[in-house]
Design a protein that fits this description.
lyase activity, 3 domains, Glycosyltransferase, periplasm, 609 residues, 5-stranded antiparallel sheet, Hepar_II_III_C, Beta-galactosidase, Chain A, domain 5, 8-stranded antiparallel sheet
């Protein structure tokens, strides 16, 4: 009975209308009556990008990949050559997908391994890189660009095989092809094969917009942006009938941005990497709005986009470009236009801040290359980085002192959470992530690893009675969403310390209050009660040679100490796992501290220098 009650509360949280949308989508496909099952399209042979007049080369960095190798999910290197890839095979294993000739709706999501591995090459990241090289005079890259697109179209006839299964994947291809057109200076051109390619993708996207909307995530923003961009591009290329498509995309995009982004910039997916994906999506839409000389987006859109840029800027470590590995991380990077590594978020922050704030996020540097490629004006003014930022719409408090940044994640779940990370603390100092989130690893692995990476064990927080913070109901759905009882800033500025505290009470009776103070060290106080057996505090440390002695763990440079006002039942250093990149799993040390009666634990992390 309790399980059904948990599920009912989760469905109410998702929203009855969204639940009905998903049920209608699935039932329609099962019965064979969904409009998406009746669409048809064909893509003719020919050049997708035609050689045009000479345009000036660009003095900016280009990705080092897509020549003799590719980097999948930002971490996994594979060899490539001039020949087109096997588009319906897993590029990491070489195994062909068994549903390559089937209509997309007959292909199961997870029955044949992780379908994201199939999708990765078909996101067309390479189209942007080949366009950059072609812009700078590399004729071979121009030929390869056309050859690969043509081979993809031949290997993936509409609407057969795994690469047509997801409308968001279709949207990403549209967005990447549109960026390639911008790079090549062909915004006003659309060769017949390209026009047919874009139309085929739009036809795939349109019938399932209701399902995308029901997800309350970047499916909705990506698909709306793709429709808008497709319409703007076709209009610039002389298709007067595409104006209606542009208007439809604008309407959808403005609606989704108003719903999915909070007034403070927090995004519905509670994920740093998905926030980047959504922000880059808005940036692409804005780029095409300007090129097509269309009216500005709504005031709400502009305000939310600017706030979203501020949100990500506050999360990013300016020294390294890295950010907390918070929430789901599937390896997505929508605008890899520079030589920056996957986990460097500065190019996206710089682009969005320039577009939506009219300021730079950072002084001149390599992150400006994305502005050069996309012909976006820079600014002489750099946005200030405040010491304290609270994003209460999403449940984040970010504190900064000098080169140190600390994040406290507290539960504000207006949308479904994907990770049980309430009261997680992340610490970055001078470009190094010292206290770390576990990441995601994979969406299609054994329950053991799904529970671990998205569960409380993979976060710097307190676990009660060895139970999950929120029970897992399905692969992507947690139940009994936690709610914050109280949160507030701690005003100790005269002492050189900034602070924040928050608390929650679990349905089972557990209570957890966490205070975080940042000065020349990080001091975290946890007050825990209501548990039956024990409470376990975990600190996930940066990999290194750590030793534990007398309640203090050190690597010779940094030290972390934990004390309590009640007896500590055990304190030990154990081996945990983290996933900095999708499909990557490595070990790291974890300090575990256990108490068996209600009490207060005080942790203090001191770093060298």
């Amino acid at each position: 009975m309790r399980r059904w009650a948990v599920r009912l509360r989760a469905l109410i949280g998702l929203g009855p209308i969204n639940v009905l949308r998903v049920l209608g989508y699935r039932l329609g496909l099962r019965l064979g009556v969904h409009p998406a099952q009746r669409i048809e399209a064909s893509i003719p042979e020919g050049l997708f990008f035609e050689r045009s007049g000479k345009i000036d080369p660009v003095d900016a960095a280009i990705s080092a990949h897509w020549d003799t190798d590719a980097m999948l999910f930002g971490a996994h290197r594979i060899a490539i050559d001039a020949e087109s890839p096997a588009w319906t095979a897993d590029p990491l294993s070489g195994e062909e997908h068994p549903g390559s000739a089937q209509p997309w709706w007959r292909i199961a999501d997870f029955a044949n391994g992780d379908i994201k591995r199939i999708w990765e090459l078909s996101r067309f990241d390479w189209a942007m890189t080949y366009a950059q090289r072609a812009r700078n005079g590399d004729a071979t890259s121009f030929d390869r660009l056309n050859t690969w697109i043509a081979h993809w179209a031949d290997s993936n006839p509409p609407y057969l095989g795994p690469n047509w299964k997801c409308a968001q994947e279709a949207s990403i291809r549209v967005l990447h092809l549109s960026i390639a057109a911008i790079v090549l200076g062909q915004e006003n051109e659309m060769a017949p094969p390209m026009r047919a390619m874009i139309e085929a993708h739009v036809r795939r996207i349109m019938p399932t917009l209701s399902y995308a909307q029901a997800q309350d995530n970047n499916h909705a923003t990506s698909e709306a942006a793709a429709i808008f961009v497709a319409g703007a591009w076709a209009t610039l290329a002389g298709d007067a009938d595409a104006v209606a498509l542009t208007q439809k995309g604008r309407q959808l995009l403005e609606r989704h941005v108003a719903r999915l982004f909070g007034g403070d910039g927090s995004f519905s997916q509670y994920s740093v990497n998905y926030h980047r994906v959504a922000l880059d999506t808005l940036a692409i839409a804005e780029l095409w709005r300007r090129r097509a000389d269309l009216p500005p987006f709504s005031e709400t859109f502009q305000a939310r986009a600017a706030a979203a840029a501020d949100w990500l800027r506050m999360m990013v470590d300016p020294a390294s470009g890295d950010a907390p590995n918070l929430g789901a991380n599937d390896g997505a990077n929508l605008l890899p236009l520079t030589g920056a590594p996957y986990r460097d978020y500065r190019p996206s922050v710089q682009l969005a801040t320039c577009l939506f704030r009219g300021l730079c996020a950072y002084p001149p540097g390599a992150w400006d290359d994305v502005l050069i490629w996309l012909d976006v004006a820079t600014s002489d003014n750099v946005a200030e980085l405040p010491e304290v930022a609270v994003f209460d719409d999403g449940g984040y408090a970010v504190l900064r002192r000098g080169s140190a940044m600390a994040l406290l994640r507290y539960p504000r779940f207006r949308f479904r959470p994907s990770h049980a990370d309430a009261m997680h603390v992340d610490l970055h100092v001078a470009g190094c992530n010292l206290l770390r989130d576990g990441g995601t690893y994979s969406y299609n692995v054994d329950d053991k690893w799904i529970d671990y990476f998205s569960g409380i064990e993979s976060h710097n927080s307190v676990q009660f009675d060895d139970r999950p913070q929120m029970p897992r109901l399905s692969r992507f759905l947690l139940g009994d969403w936690l709610k914050t009882d109280d949160c507030r800033l701690i005003d100790e500025k005269d002492s050189g310390i900034v602070g924040f505290c928050a608390s929650y009470r679990h349905r089972s009776g557990w209570t957890h209050r966490r205070e975080m103070r940042l000065g020349n060290c990080l001091r975290v106080t946890d007050v825990c009660s209501g548990f039956t057996k024990h409470a376990t505090l975990r600190w996930r440390l940066a990999p290194g040679d750590w030793t534990l002695r007398d309640g203090v763990v050190t690597n010779g440079r940094d030290r972390l100490s934990v004390c309590a006002d009640v007896p500590i039942s055990s304190i030990r250093l154990v081996v945990g796992c983290e996933s900095r990149n999708y499909l990557e799993k490595t070990e790291l040390p974890v300090l575990e501290v256990v108490i068996t009666e209600p009490g207060r634990m005080i942790s203090e992390y001191r770093w060298a220098g």
